[in-house]
Amino acid sequence: MPERNERIPNAANHRVSFRRYEPGDIPSCARLAEDAWPARPALATEEVGSSGMEGYMEYSRRVANWTDIAYTSDGIVGFLFGRIDSLPEKVPSRKSPFGEPSTIIRSFFARGRITPTLLGFLWSLMLTELKVKLNTPKSDASIEMFIVDSMYRGKGVGSELLDRFLRAARDAGSALVTVYTDDRMSNWGFYEKRGFRRVGTFYDNITSHYSGSDARGIIFALDLKEEKTIRDER
Question: Which of 58, 50, 211, 198 is nearest to 124 (CA)?
Answer without folding.
Answer: 211
